[in-house]
């Protein structure tokens, strides 16, 4: 069975919704993000599938494929990885290596997890994240915690959802002040 990992950029106050400019996918201006990017690539090397909701997929599709000079390597990774978009309205993904998952998303993701392969990573896609969390499908949470407080925005977990206990797998600080917190259900 494959690992389904939710990888999210998150503020100290728990927001994953990017309402303000606390996150920049190409780097944080003059901040040294090389060690964060190195960790991101390490995780990418263990994943062969990216799981996205329709809105995040469309945001990615509108941004990453047109980045012609991307020193981060994110564009190259996103071009080659298998992308699965959960949608009831999208019919043609219009991006190489992309497939639309229709019908019951929980069942589609269970089937995807049962296939042979490496990690499946879900990022962004707040509504889809809430769905897979509530269905108990998440094997690991990989949280890149940014040293900022946004004061608003949707969080990682669905309202009223309780996880009795998580097991810390790793805690690591980066030069930028960002930390990585990896957890698995206990």
User: Residue share in helices?
Assistant: 25-40%
Mean pLDDT: 92
Q: Give the termini distance in whole angstroms.
A: 18 Å
- Count of DSSP H/I helices: 5
The total beta strand count reads: 8
The quaternary structure here is single chain
What is the 3D shape? Answer: globular
What is the H-and-E element order? EHEHHEEHEHEEE
- Rg measurement, Å: 16 Å
Reported for the largest beta sheet, the result is:
8 strands, mixed
Residue fraction in strands: 25-35%
Low-confidence stretches: none
For the largest beta sheet, what order do the strands appear in spatially?
A: 4-3-2-5-1-6-8-7
Question: Class by helix and strand content?
Answer: alpha/beta
Summary, kept brief:
The protein has 186 residues and is α/β, with parallel strands linked by helices.
């Amino acid at each position: 069975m494959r690992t389904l990992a939710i990888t999210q950029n998150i503020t100290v106050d728990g927001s994953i919704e990017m309402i303000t400019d606390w996150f920049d996918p190409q780097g944080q201006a003059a901040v040294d993000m090389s060690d964060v990017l190195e960790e991101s690539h390490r995780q990418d090397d263990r994943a062969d599938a990216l799981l996205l909701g329709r809105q995040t997929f469309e945001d990615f599709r509108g941004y990453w494929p047109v980045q012609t000079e991307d020193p981060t390597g994110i564009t190259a990774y996103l071009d080659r990885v298998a992308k699965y978009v959960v949608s009831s309205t999208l019919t043609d993904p219009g991006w190489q290596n992309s497939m639309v998952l229709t019908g019951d998303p929980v069942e589609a993701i269970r089937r995807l997890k049962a296939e042979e392969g490496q990690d499946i990573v879900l990022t962004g896609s707040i509504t889809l994240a809430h769905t897979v969390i509530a269905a108990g499908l998440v094997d690991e949470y990989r949280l890149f915690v940014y040293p900022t407080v946004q004061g608003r925005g949707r969080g990682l977990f669905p309202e009223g959802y309780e996880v009795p206990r998580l097991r810390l797998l790793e805690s690591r600080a980066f030069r930028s002040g960002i930390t990585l917190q990896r957890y698995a259900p206990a």
